[in-house]
Amino acid sequence: MTERILLVHDDPELPTITKRQLERMGLFEVILAHSAIEALDILEREKMDVIICDYQMTEMDGIEFLRRLKQAGDERPFILVTGEGQDDIAAEAINLGAARHVQNGSELAEDIISAMDSMSLHGVPKTILKESEFRSYFDNNPLGIFLADEHGNYVDVNPAATRITGYGRDELLSMNMLDLILEEGRTASMERFGRLLETGSFQEEASFTTKYGERRWWWINAVKLSGNRFLAFTEDITERKEMENLLQLMRFSMDNSSVGLYWVSPEGHFLNANKGACEMLGYSREELLEMDIWGVDPCPEHAQNERENRWNLLRQGGGLNFRSVHRKKDGTQIDVDVSTRYLELNGVEYEFSFVLDITDRVVAERRVRENIKLYMDILNSMGDMVLIIDENGHFTEVNDAVVRILGFSRDELAGLTPSDIDLLADERLVRERMKKTFEGGELAFDSVHLTKDGRRVDTSVTTTPF
Fold it and tell me: Measured between alpha carbons, how far is 103 from 111 in angstroms, rounded to an integer?
């Protein structure tokens, strides 16, 4: 049998986490209510053994809810959840008939267990302590259950304990809890057992090793039954732990990436940004999360009034790649390459963007273009013909004198080879001359070139590697 707990709490996340932690033990069924009004409705329809309620809620706070229950003659144990420094509220609750009070926070489940321990036999419902019922509960529980003495020697285990360790029942009953723990973790294990002796309970994750030497992670919920008996409920959480470690590695890698990463809502609001994005733009993460994308991207196509069109385009295509400009906190602008992807997770849509600062590259490209233009201006000012040939023997650029003398346009010459306009050179001779040029530097020879209209032009040619 399990005890049914009604947990009344309006926080969007904490109640769900607490419910999962409590139900891991296999001793409790937790029903959630997000307001006192909803809780009253549940209590009319369903049987509950314990009521746990947050103090600070809208519509009706925990004290008023407790007062209403007591006025109606409700004698079920009531535990009030208060905030730090609310001792006066806790005292008022006790005066009104609350059995215990606990403090809100990340350890709420553990505090609830401790409070319930003091109201029953250390969290194990009295209703299951009859020998026959307890044996059935013990043997059929999907969690591994270990019963140990005050020295940590196992005196009883259930079938689930043998499955998760790989040992047989008789093997486990000849072992101590330290036999399942790697040597480097034994000090921490002894500290946990000492805490169990002192406080009567503990909950936490720990690593163990199976009979076959495989390291596994377990969630342990241990309680003290008597002076020399201790009960531990264990759940194998290795797969979840490995996934959490992988997610933690991914988060760490993404947050510390030099590439700017940010997540944006369909409305254009920043939802998250990594360290690279913050350093690139000069904003803190908190500052960016108060902004919209057009606050850093001044390009007209990314303006607020274009957001809906832009979002639909992203959603239909699944992703966009483009070059843009971002404005930093100090007002300076940087050139960026942006690769953005449409994501949907649990029904929520996101724009996920990789942003690379290419300002230095853009400046370098601009300088190259300027140098090429200057170089071509010099070549075009020359009266002699200048033809540039790539490694495959094709013309890639010619100056104005070539166009004027031979009569071909640049587009017509593009892709041609010297043998197409040199009457004295075939492809083999062109390749030989190119080889000699690359090996020995300049090469000089006389030739005859053909113009577009069929005329012959005597030429003196000098080739040089470029």
Answer: 8
